[in-house]
# Entry
Amino acid sequence: MLFSVNDMETKLCIPIVAETVEEALEDLRNAEQYADLVELRLDHIKNISKQGLRELIAARTKPLIVAYRGEKAEKRELLLEAVEAGAEFIDLDESEKNMINDVRKKGKTRIILSFHDFTKTPILEELKQKYKEMEGYHPDFIKIVATATSINDNFKIFEFLKDKKKCIAFCMGIKGVISRILAPKYGSFLTFAALKEKKVSAPGQLTAMEMINVYNVKNINEETEIYGIVGAAAEHSRSPQIHNSFFHETSENARFLSFKVEEKELKKFIDNLQKYHFQGAAITMPHKVAVMQYLDEIDETAAGIGAVNTIVNNHGRFIGYNTDGYGALRALKDKTEVRGKKVLVLGAGGASRAIVYGLRKEGIRVTISNRTLEKAQQLAEEFYTDFLSLADAEKRASEYDIIINATSQGMGLQEGETPLVNLPEKKVVMDIVSYPSITRFIKLAQQNKCTVITGEKMLLYQAVQQYHLWMGKELNSKVLENARQLLRRII
Ligand code: ATR
# Structure
């Protein structure tokens, strides 16, 4: 019996990448809990026999694609055996198009004719030409898989898919991930996800759990609004988890992706976001300043800070905002009264600017300290505040009520570093570094009985303000509490 398939809806397909029939049977059982369709990669199973293949086909409880990549003598016979045994689909490489007639004679199995480009994404005209050529062989589905060398390649696939039916198309590679997630929006018949990290069958594949739990991919449709974080290392950002949890809990038909964008790709990427009606974006390192020149308008706070961390698509116009200062202030106010307090801000980079701006707006006295003293001086002059060398900050830290680390020390490669070693007792100490959550700076503060505010608070609250800008409404305390718990789990 063939399992029926609705050809008009995107299916989540999990490839079975196993070395033995027993392992494949186990993976099949697990994959079928999440997958709409399962793809059996015969080339991975060592010494697969016709009997083993039949056993696997008979065991399926979901529609099955049988595929064999690479060249081996057994391939043709095994694929025809799969047809005879009643597999719903077989995947034939373009070079195997001469098998189409034999497959048709043998059974009702539908044919996916596939083309792979492992080095690039061809230009749109070439993609269309390839499709036309393959259409000439009358397969049931056409699959075109390219490789993204730039995030902008994904948009070629979105454009290509526009008027296509019974077509599977996406980009492989880390820069192609968004085409896999957005397959249901643009109408690719299949999107592939791995059973687990070790079972990835092609580069860029996310796990099925991530596709389902973070991106809720089965409920993405044409109308789904798209947001995302734009950054050079955006794949490491926790913003997708935070924003997708906000969207999920407030029942918005919206998703938040990560956009790994290099400096040289930024202009075209922002153009693409606008052209494809993405609803908004978060901006992170190193694009917060550079992105400003590509926007239609900059709001007052972002202009004051001199950097944008949020884009809002307002009827086609892209407006730049900055929610970092708001995030920092709200994180502080959760734990302490800020009015009348003396604040020491360590660092004079982008994050520091946003925080100093936010504090000054509220009329709070700030002193800026930085490794490069001239930068502290410049910032202090711009915002009419004081500045200090780091050595002096170390000596005079006890004069301040609130001390904030706005340097990158403690983060990633700088883990274990701290901008100050001698932290005074019983102060309020905040770190903007959210990964790791407990930095050395925070540890020192805890040892000195300070009230501490860790970096994920600012991360959370700047995201809350982004949600407000995008959706025009506030998040309730239950959604916030859930996001807090989620952050605690993932950081
Ligand atoms: P961000 O946008 O995150 O603020 P940035 O603009 O690159 O990033 O700023 C990084 C801040 O961390 C700067 O204040 C930097 O000091 P310099 O202006 O002297 O470069 C500070 N910083 C980075 N590494 C540091 C280190 N090892 N010791 C002291 N300060 C450091």
